[in-house]
Each structure stands twice: as structure tokens, then as C-alpha cells.
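Quick one, C-alpha cells below. Sequence please?
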């Protein structure tokens, strides 16, 4: 960490303009919406918006030393509170950018998971059919970027496909599992969210945690609203424990698993990308299994709804892929 300058920043000089805040928040909304549905990657949205390099730099800038220095500056240690010193560390890690981005992602995730928790009950065939279309086209887009160059690369792809295909079935020991499962799911999903092309929500589906976390987050938000409005916050502690565990897992994953994956990409990009892409291909089984479980099997009506929604999901992602190069969030 660099030595603080003699003249530390002030709050008025540190806070970015409202326009920059709004733009970053809007990008966060787009990333959060992408991260909340399987088959679309928030990392891809970050690339399209031109902030991917800044996002990775911010994550790498958040080190244990900076965290400790920031927290000590906000406590009555070492001679008292040092708000300007804390602000300096905050600026070093591009904190205002991260704060606006996380706010946008959070708002979008809460909104999307609310819709998912309703559709799981009311129209599971439409929901998971749409997801199937998203995942199928996502796999197609990723596969066209791969070229088989070695037996090791092929083996990595086979391992990725097998893991996803087996876990995407009725994995009872994961579905509704312990807090440890939630923690691991958070670590894996959030670390994947920053990788272009790989959807964190897709990995949650593979791990059997997508529907559970969508319902839990919605129930937790409902509990908070009831608490603020003076009602009975039913299940707030139980749901809050799961949500906090997932977030803690996500933070750990962001700074550990994410860096491991980035390191693997730097060491052997072709084999690592083949493994990740074949995870997507193998996960095509997941929406089918989820539809069977939630809709009670594939009747003619369910099959028609599933197929129609799959086509809609496929067309949506194809359109996004076609026009992605024209998206310019600088105009926001």
C-alpha cells in the first residue's frame, strides 16, 4: 500500500459527480439483472460497458492491509478517529465506484429474485423453460469461441460437463442443505459472476440453491419491510442467517476462488475456459429437472409452455449477443 500523502482527501473532493454515480449505478442494475438469471453473465455486461478492467483492479486493490487500515482509522485507536485517513484508503480501492456498482447490483438482484420466487410457484414451466433457452444459447455462444487443441483440454471439458450434469440432477444433500452448503454456493456463484460468459446463477442452479436463495431473499426482504412497518417479522432471523451466510461466502469467493480462477486462466486459458464452458453445457439438465420437480412432470401442457419459453429465452439472448457491440452505457 502506498504511503498516504501529506494532504489527505476531503469528502467533498472525493465524492464523484452525480452523473458518474448514476452511470455506475445503471451499469450495476444491468449486471445485477444478468447475474440474477442463469445463462447471462454480469462479467459480460461489465465488458460491454467498458468497466471490466476497473472492476478487476478494484477487487485486486482490496487487500487485508487496506481493510485493517480502514477499520483502524474508524476506531478510537492510534490517537483517535481518522476519517480523512479512512477516506484515503477508500479512494485507493476505488470505493465510490464499488459502492454505486454494488448498490445497482443489489437492487436488481432483489427485484429479479422476487419475480423468480413468484414464478416458481405460479409458472415453473415458463420460468425454467426460459432459463433453458438462455443457457442453451449461452453455451452455443461460448462453444463457438473454443477450439480443441489438446487431449488435456478435451479432458478438462469432459470433467466440467460431467460435474455439471451430475450435480444438476436431484442432488438431495445439496438442495436445502446446511449453512456450509450456502456458504460454498455463495463463494462459487459470486466468484463466477465476475467472469465474462459464466453465470453465477447458473452455478447456483447446478448446486440446487437457486430457487432456495431466491425464495429466502424475497422472504428476508418481506420480513424487513414488516419489521419497519411495525408488523411481525416472521422468519427474519432464520432467513437473515442464510442471506448473511451467502454474502459472506460470496465475499470470500470474490477474493479467493475468483483469484484462483483468474490464475488458472492465466496459466492455461484454453483448458480452463473449456472446463467452464462445458459446465454450462452440462447444466442444461438443470432446468429440465427443476421443471419436473416444480410442475409435477412433463404433461403436454407443461411441455408446450416449456418449449415456448425456451424459444423466447433463446431469442432474447441471441438478440443481446447480436446487439451487444452497439450498447454504449456512456450515454446513460
Amino acid at each position: 500500500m502506498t504511503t498516504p500523502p501529506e494532504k489527505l482527501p476531503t469528502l467533498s473532493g472525493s465524492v464523484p459527480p452525480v452523473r458518474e454515480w448514476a452511470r455506475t449505478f445503471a451499469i450495476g442494475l444491468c449486471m445485477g439483472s444478468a447475474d440474477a438469471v442463469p445463462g447471462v453473465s454480469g462479467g459480460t455486461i461489465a465488458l460491454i460497458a467498458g468497466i471490466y478492467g476497473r472492476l478487476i483492479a478494484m477487487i485486486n486493490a482490496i487487500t487485508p492491509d487496506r481493510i485493517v487500515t480502514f477499520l483502524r482509522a474508524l476506531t478510537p485507536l492510534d490517537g483517535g478517529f481518522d476519517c480523512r485517513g479512512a477516506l484515503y484508503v477508500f479512494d485507493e480501492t476505488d470505493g465510490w465506484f464499488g459502492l454505486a456498482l454494488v448498490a445497482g447490483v443489489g437492487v436488481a438482484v432483489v427485484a429479479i429474485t422476487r419475480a423468480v420466487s413468484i414464478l416458481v410457484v405460479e409458472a415453473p414451466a415458463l420460468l425454467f423453460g426460459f432459463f433453458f433457452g438462455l443457457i442453451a444459447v449461452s453455451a452455443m455462444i461460448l462453444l463457438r469461441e473454443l477450439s480443441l487443441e489438446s487431449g488435456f483440454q478435451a479432458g478438462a471439458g469432459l470433467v466440467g460437463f460431467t460435474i455439471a450434469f451430475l450435480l444438476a440432477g436431484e442432488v438431495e444433500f445439496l438442495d436445502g442443505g446446511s449453512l456450509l452448503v450456502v456458504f460454498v454456493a455463495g463463494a462459487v456463484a459470486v466468484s463466477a459472476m465476475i467472469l465474462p460468459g459464466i453465470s453465477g446463477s447458473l452455478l447456483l442452479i447446478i448446486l440446487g440453491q437457486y430457487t432456495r436463495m431466491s425464495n429466502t431473499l424475497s422472504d428476508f426482504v418481506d420480513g424487513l419491510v414488516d419489521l419497519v412497518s411495525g408488523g411481525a417479522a416472521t422468519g427474519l432471523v432464520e432467513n437473515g442467517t442464510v442471506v448473511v451466510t451467502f454474502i459472506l461466502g460470496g465475499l470470500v469467493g470474490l477474493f479467493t476462488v475468483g483469484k484462483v480462477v483468474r490464475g488458472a486462466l492465466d496459466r492455461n486459458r484454453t483448458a480452463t475456459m473449456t472446463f467452464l464452458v462445458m459446465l454450462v453445457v452440462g447444466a442444461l439438465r438443470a432446468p429440465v429437472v427443476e421443471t419436473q420437480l416444480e410442475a409435477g412432470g412433463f404433461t403436454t401442457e407443461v411441455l408446450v409452455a416449456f418449449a415456448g419459453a425456451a424459444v423466447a429465452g433463446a431469442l432474447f439472448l441471441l438478440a443481446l449477443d447480436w446487439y451487444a457491440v452497439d450498447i454504449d452505457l456512456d450515454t446513460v
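Confidence is low (pLDDT under 50) at residues 325-332. The chain has 17 helices and no strands.
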